Amino acid sequence: MGSRPTGERRTAILGAAAELFAERGFRGVTIDDLGRAVGTSGPALYRHFPGKEALLGEVLVDVSDRLARRGAEVVAAAREPREALDLLLRGHIAFALDEPALITVHDRELGHLTEDDQYRVRRLQRGYVEQWVGVLADLRPHDSADVLRAAVHAVFGLLNSTPHSRGGLGRQEMADLLLTMGAAALTAPATIPGAPAATAAGGTVPRL
């Protein structure tokens, strides 16, 4: 196998693959389909990827890595926890609105990854979740890490609903709505005063 593509070429290949996998499903896409989508032949892609499974792995590892790296950068740059939370929300909302195919592919095709790629994706995603949990721990010091982690997973479910929930709203209108709802959900008290305590439920991965 040749070297992996870099820069704009790599971005184009991964973007085209994500769109095709989202539209047709992993099993419905051939290597020739993928080649045509980026203006080359299927066999030419074998110079960079050994097959569809490897390309799917690259797609999902790449987006998990991008989210984790950007999350770390904005948390490090923020002057205080509320700014960090705002930046995390805005970054994830931009991803959800601009790259919805990746959400669809993750939800539907994660099981087609190799064990190594599944491990890489889940490790990156766990780290990304913990970035959010760390910020919330400063804002909600009386809540347990389990409660905060469940809140983060719940909000990811909200933000990642955009492939289905956007409807007729414009991008900015939807972004503003998600920002307001996400911030409210993450900063709400874990229990309502006077009501019985409830146990929050959360997933094991951030549901990209």
Structural features, described:
The structure is a single chain. With 208 residues, the chain is mostly helical. It has a domain at 54-187: Tetracycline Repressor, domain 2. Helix content is 69%, strand content 0%. It contains ten helices and no strands. The chain has helices at residues 7-24, 31-37, 42-45, 52-77, 81-98, 100-109, 115-139, 145-159, 162-165, 171-187. The longest helix is centred in the first third of the chain and has 26 residues, at 52-77. 30% of the residues are buried.
What are the secondary-structure elements, in order, as H or E? HHHHHHHHHH
Number of helices: 10
- Rg to the nearest angstrom? 19 Å
Supply the CATH architecture of the domain at 54-187. Answer: Orthogonal Bundle
Structural class: mainly alpha
Rounded average pLDDT: 87
Under the CATH scheme, which class of the domain at 54-187? Mainly Alpha
| CATH homologous superfamily classification of the domain at 54-187 | Tetracycline Repressor, domain 2
General shape:
elongated
The total beta strand count reads 0
How helical, in percent, are the residues?
55-70%
The fraction of residues assigned to DSSP E strands is under 5%
Head-to-tail CA distance between termini? 29 Å
- Main β sheet profile: none
CATH topology of the domain at 54-187: Tetracycline Repressor, domain 2
Low-confidence stretches: 197-205
